[in-house]
Amino acid sequence: MVWITSALDSVLSPTTIALGNFDGVHRGHQRVIAPILNGPAIDPSDSAAEPGSMPVSTVVSFSPHPKAFFSGRSHPLLTPMDEKAQVLDRLGIEQFVILPFGRSLANLTPEDFTVEILIRGLQARAIAVGADFHFGRGRSGTADRLREIAAEFGVPVKIVSLMSDQEGRISSSRIRAALGDGDVHRAQALLGRPYAIAGRVEAGQQLGRQLGFPTANLTIPPEKLLPRLGVYAVRVTLADGSLRPGVTNIGRRPTVGEQAAVTVEVHLLDWSGDLYGQWVTIELIDFLRPEQRFASLTDLKTQIEQDRQQARDRLTAATLS
């Protein structure tokens, strides 16, 4: 299980570091992370590791996101910290260090950040960053400058080229745009996995049960970025690890009195049971339709049945493809 810490005095060291925000941990981020997982990408003979010591593969990120800190506004995340830790754990990362991003850290020069945080605090033996990485006061530090500073301490820096597809650079902003359009296929291609939403099941208004389609209402971390409002075919992972097909509505339920807050509800196909209090994860497999207002609950019920059948068809097609 990945070790998570925000305090330098509890870091497992020495370390090999992948450094960045990594929101989404998308395919481009995974390329930056790969060198600290695959030994030959950073030659251990070039590092400052002591004989017999085994550096801990470590991803270093920041909270809050620097964009949120500098703008003073919330910055919805593709992967809130708990979710990011789970993804990193699946990749094989041993340690996740979350540096509290505040004025003191933001004011460090590139030299001070490298020496005080990376070299002394984290005892870095090798570092990997993306080619577009900037750090330090006023984002004045570049990947090349990091390499120069770290070289003075015998620490190699792997500068990883950016990953692109036929439409351009793979980035968190492109994933956000895809999700805003409800284009979960494009988001999945950029992420390298389906976009997931995780939360704990809480009691709701039980309207779905009254209509004959019981739903589980999820409490989602407030910083989690939600996709276009509408109905999705989803794959659901329950607390026991089992996978179930389902259909999810993300929206304000305009037919029954539009709410200010967006809700996430999931209906499991061909399943019955009590999910209250359980932590579940839904993966968006296909976008079925945008949210809409219906003239009556009867019309809504008819549409939900159509959504269920369409979700079955899309999920079956996704499994076979």
Automatic annotation (TrEMBL):
Swiss-Prot/TrEMBL keywords: ATP-binding, FAD, Flavoprotein, FMN, Kinase, Multifunctional enzyme, Nucleotide-binding, Nucleotidyltransferase, Transferase
Alphabetized Pfam families for the sequence: FAD_syn, Flavokinase
Phylogenetic placement of the source organism: Bacteria, Bacillati, Cyanobacteriota, Cyanophyceae, Pseudanabaenales
InterPro entries on file: FAD_synthase, Riboflavin_kinase, Riboflavin_kinase_bac, Riboflavin_kinase_bac/euk, Riboflavin_kinase_dom_sf, Rossmann-like_a/b/a_fold
Protein known as: Riboflavin biosynthesis protein
EC id: 2.7.1.26, 2.7.7.2
Pathway: Cofactor biosynthesis; FMN biosynthesis; FMN from riboflavin (ATP route): step 1/1; Cofactor biosynthesis; FAD biosynthesis; FAD from FMN: step 1/1
UniProt signal peptide: none
Record-annotated Riboflavin kinase domain positions: 190-316
Keyword Flavoprotein assigned: yes
Catalytic activity: riboflavin + ATP = FMN + ADP + H(+); FMN + ATP + H(+) = FAD + diphosphate
Record bears the keyword Cell division: no
GO MF, one annotated term: FMN adenylyltransferase activity
Record organism: Limnothrix redekei LRLZ20PSL1
Family recorded in the similarity comment: Belongs to the ribF family.
